């Protein structure tokens, strides 16, 4: 009997790097690191100071504290848009009832009770009556905002220093630690609550039966019900938890600022949800990360701080908020199947085949690519590539040579990080959509049987050279003469037109003459659009 070789290679499983890359918080961690580097480049002397760092963490408090409850709620498959209004109402009730003569402990208990009842009410409407959480929480958002306006009488309510209660101080006051830590001086107590509640939230979600039931409920409610989990109870409890945390955050904000106005908390609900999703919580339920939620809140706080240090105030913060909300949804959708192959197999390999075997590549598309998801990945990655190249070159050249970049609302400053990706996305989406419409109309007039998806595939893959768009964009932004910019555009357009001709022949089944007619008509239409646009801009 032959001896068996005992030196069998063991599969040690994924490497540490692979396991880390699979964590849902990785994207948020990378974003925080990038923002820290940017802050150091903008104003390292101020940004890296102890007081500024403490201020950034304190600015995460409202978003993070509410976000911990929102994480549990979204893990169970629901969400709450009324948290910002509830936060404002809680602060307004504490300010008015306490200054009206009631004891602070009684007022705080009453507000917590009302918040719990609010969460219970929403949970019952959604679970027992089957109403969608979107509609219910939009309704309660408006209702609570109106109640806040009525309670405050349209005015700002404040608590003076001589009336400032000790209990409120422990919720969100500023502790003087200059005697112990002279470098720090003043320490916001909200930081302690933010970190402590993160630990509690992590334990509840990952170490308790309730956390597992929440994940099971959001992942597959029907299966959870068949195993005996009372999914309605899980969701109701989570609605109550997020309401209680929103009330607590409102009290903390009142304690810190000693004032509350009718506009307090406006937009907080969107930032909270975006922070939760950016931090790794599945938008559709079943998975979540409490530390990730803190990182998501930190991203918003860092962004706002960097904008202020860059001399932009908060003018662009709403723009960034919108970008982050869209990014949060995209991250969530893509993260379910996000792989490095999107760059290698989805972009680099098609790009290489287009350059080396154009006819063979389009024949492969004709036979094997029936949907448009692969072409869309190709277009998206190409847009990201030329955007990143543009940003890097713009800032490096500005730092080394001092060439100030200016392209509409894009400049060489920190705001370029937010605006250039938007410009790139709009430019590429517009070019692809208009060209596809023109090509498909021309092909239909000639007599193709191909559908709109075929035309879209033709255009997206033929636009492979548009990754070089960073050249005319930079030339235009650095005030090069327009003929040079137009020449750069022509250099990119000519190979795209050639590829469009080759792809139209294959994917629409045209002979050389018909393909040339379709592409020629598309070029003529584009020429008319370009002439009209230049005329209007010149006027």
TrEMBL record:
**InterPro entries documented for this protein:** ABC_transp_permease (IPR001851), Yip1_dom (IPR006977)
List where in the cell it is found: Cell membrane
Q: Topology in the membrane?
A: Multi-pass membrane protein
Q: What is this protein called?
A: YIP1 family protein
> Any idea which UniProt keywords this protein has?
Cell membrane, Membrane, Transmembrane, Transmembrane helix
Task: Tell me the superkingdom of the source.
Answer: Archaea
Q: What sections of the protein cross the membrane? A: 26-44, 56-75, 87-117, 129-152, 187-205, 236-256, 268-285, 292-310, 316-334, 376-401, 407-437, 458-478, 484-503, 515-534
GO CC terms, sorted: plasma membrane
Tell me which PANTHER family the record gives.
ABC TRANSPORTER PERMEASE PROTEIN YPHD-RELATED-RELATED
Organism in which the protein naturally occurs:
Halomarina halobia
**Annotated ranges, domain Yip1:** 374-532
One Pfam family hit: Yip1
């Amino acid at each position: 009997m032959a001896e068996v070789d005992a030196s069998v290679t063991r599969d040690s499983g994924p490497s540490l790097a692979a396991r880390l890359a699979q964590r849902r918080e990785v994207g948020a961690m990378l974003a925080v690191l990038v923002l820290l580097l940017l802050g150091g480049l903008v104003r390292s002397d101020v940004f890296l100071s102890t007081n500024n760092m403490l201020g950034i963490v304190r600015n995460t408090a409202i978003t993070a504290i509410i976000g911990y409850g929102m994480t549990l709620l979204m893990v169970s498959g629901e969400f709450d848009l009324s948290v910002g209004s509830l936060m404002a109402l809680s602060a307004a009730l504490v300010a008015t009832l306490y200054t009206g003569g009631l004891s602070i402990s009684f007022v705080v208990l009453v507000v917590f009770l009302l918040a719990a009842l609010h969460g219970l009410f929403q949970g019952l409407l959604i679970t027992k009556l089957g109403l969608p959480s979107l509609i219910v929480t939009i309704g309660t958002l408006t209702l609570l905002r109106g109640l806040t306006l009525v309670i405050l009488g349209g005015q700002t309510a404040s608590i003076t220093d001589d009336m400032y209660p000790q209990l409120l101080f422990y919720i969100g006051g500023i502790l003087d630690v200059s005697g112990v830590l002279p470098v720090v001086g003043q320490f916001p107590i909200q930081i302690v609550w933010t970190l402590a509640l993160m630990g509690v939230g992590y334990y509840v979600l990952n170490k308790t039966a309730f956390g597992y039931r929440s994940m099971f409920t959001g992942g597959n409610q029907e299966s959870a019900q068949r195993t005996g989990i009372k999914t309605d109870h899980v969701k109701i409890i989570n609605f109550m938890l997020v309401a209680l945390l929103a009330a607590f955050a409102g009290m903390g904000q009142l304690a810190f600022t000693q004032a509350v106005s009718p506009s307090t908390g406006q937009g907080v609900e969107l930032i909270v949800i975006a922070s939760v999703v950016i931090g790794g919580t599945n938008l559709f339920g079943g998975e979540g990360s409490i530390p990730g939620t803190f990182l998501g809140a930190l991203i918003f706080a860092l962004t706002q701080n960097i904008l202020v240090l860059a001399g932009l105030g908060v003018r662009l913060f709403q723009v960034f908020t919108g970008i982050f909300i869209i990014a949060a949804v995209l991250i969530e959708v893509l993260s379910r199947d996000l792989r490095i192959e999107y760059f290698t197999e989805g972009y680099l390999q098609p790009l290489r085949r287009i350059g080396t075997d154009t006819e063979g590549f389009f024949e492969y598309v004709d036979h094997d690519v029936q949907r448009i998801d692969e072409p869309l990945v190709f277009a998206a990655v190409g847009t990201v590539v030329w955007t990143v190249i543009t940003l890097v070159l713009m800032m490096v050249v500005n730092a080394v040579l001092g060439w100030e970049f200016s392209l509409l609302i894009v400049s060489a400053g920190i705001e370029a990080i937010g605006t250039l990706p938007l410009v790139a996305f709009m430019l590429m989406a517009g070019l692809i959509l208009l060209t596809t419409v023109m090509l498909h109309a021309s092909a239909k007039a000639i007599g193709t049987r191909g559908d709109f998806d075929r035309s879209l595939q033709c255009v997206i893959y033929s636009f492979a050279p548009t990754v070089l768009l960073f050249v005319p964009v930079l030339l235009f932004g650095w005030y090069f003469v327009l003929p040079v910019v137009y020449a750069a555009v022509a250099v990119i357009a000519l190979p795209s037109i050639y590829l469009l001709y080759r792809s139209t022949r294959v994917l629409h089944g045209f002979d050389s003459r018909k393909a040339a007619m379709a592409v020629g008509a598309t070029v003529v239409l584009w020429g008319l659009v370009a002439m009209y646009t230049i005329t209007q801009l010149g006027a």
